[in-house]
Amino acid sequence: MDTVNSEKTSQTPTDNHEQVFYPLEVSKVIQDTVDACSVVLKISPQLKQKFAYRAGQYLTFEIPWGDFSIRRSYSLCSAPSSGEDPTVTIKRVTDGRASNWFNDQVKPGMSILVAPPAGRFSIRNDNTNPIVLAAGGSGITPIISIIKTVLLESSRELVLIYANRDPQSVIFHDQINALAQQHPDRLTCHYHLDSEGSYLGEEKLLRLIDDRWDADFYVCGPGPYMDLVENTLLKRDVKKTNIFIERFVSPIDPDRTTETTEAANDAEISTPSNVEFSVTLDGVETNIPYQPGTTLLDNMLACSALEEVPHSCCEGHCGSCMAVLKKGDVKMLSNRILSKRDLAAGYVLACQSVPLTEEILLNFDE
Fold it and tell me: How does pLDDT run across 227-241, given as a tens digit for each residue?
């Protein structure tokens, strides 16, 4: 079944904090390249506020598949201040269930279930330094949203480094060039094509960055590409607070669940009886009670002062609820998103964390 009932929302029944999905109408489907399409969504007046978003955020879709549904997240490529309708671009992946469904079956007029925008890969507005954006393949989708928004809302310089397999793979080629022509003094674009010789390497990356080490860096693309860019920046002592990387993985589909949860019940995890739990968010530290047998995020969402705490999937695959553990120790029930470097820096997923010590302090501001 391709069309979702337009009179219902969908909510996973596992707990009260799971994602809620709303039916949105597809107003337009645009063929961007031979293997990528853009899906434009119509937002009803009643849902305008709920689907307000920041440049760089993403939408999660619940897609019908046989006797069950699957979920996938795609970055918004539209700019919130441009007047564009919310738009996502999906590149076809070999054997990809959702990507092929979007490219082959989604048509204007269809209704699709969509969760409100989420994600923390967004613009930092507290400085005027240049912005260097490194995109690889379909990683351009949140990047172009950021580019359009910065051009509209500030005077900051932008440098785009965009790597692709070949000319046919370049998504938004005409859009990017048009923006560069309209803003020649602010937007510089560098395209790298693997078909012309080799993968993008550190030496060329250094040339393209051109000593802009005080910039804010936004990185999105395949894992090895993001690792290259991040490692290059860290070697040049770029502050970690100036590096923004978009990482999330797809959830495991119901018929492909072969993994067992590392430790998912009270019998396997012994939590202290009296936990002192504090959260720093937007510069404010809040002390909240901890209920045994629940995750840290569960307790935050039950607190009225922390209703706006970053979160989305509640399943450990989007990374929206990652925070730095400043005090104490936790056990993560699952981790498919945090890198070794993230873990070494003290990051945890609040939706997957249960306390192992009596004192816990999480910081969402770092």
Answer: 999 999 999 999 988
Per-residue model confidence (pLDDT) at position 335: 87
Question: pLDDT tens digit string along 133-146?
Answer: 999 999 999 999 99
Could you tell me which CATH class the domain 10-117 is placed in?
mainly beta
- Its CATH class, for the domain covering 262-363, is alpha beta
Return all residues near 143 (Cβ < 8 A) that are at least 6 apart: 133, 135, 160, 162, 218, 220
Q: Quick one: tokens of 114? A: 């969509």
Full 3-state SS string of the chain: CCCCCCCCCEECCCCCCCCEEEEEEEEEEEEEECCEEEEEEECCHHHCCCCCCCCCCEEEEEEEECCEEEEEEEEECCCCCCCCCCEEEEECCCCCHHHHHHHHHCCCCCEEEEEEEECCCCCCCCCCCCEEEEEEHHHHHHHHHHHHHHHHHCCCCEEEEEEECCHHHCCCHHHHHHHHHHCCCCEEEEEEEHHHCCCCCHHHHHHHHCCCCCCEEEEECCHHHHHHHHHHHHHCCCCHHHEEECCCCCCCCHHHCCCCCCCCCCCCCCCCCCCEEEEEECCEEEEECCCCCCCHHHHHHCCHHHCCCCCCCCCCCCCCCEEEEEECCEEECCCCCCCHHHHHCCEEEHHHEEECCCEEEEECCC
Pairing relation of β-strands 187-193 and 68-75?
unpaired
Distance CA 294, CA 302 (A): 11
Please state the domain extents for the chain: 10-117, 131-245, 262-363
The dotted CATH code for 131-245 is: 3.40.50.80
Q: Mind listing the pLDDT tens digit for each residue in 1-32?
A: 232 332 333 443 334 456 899 999 999 999 99
Q: For the beta carbon of residue 95, count every other beta carbon within 10 angstroms.
A: 6
Residue type, 155: S
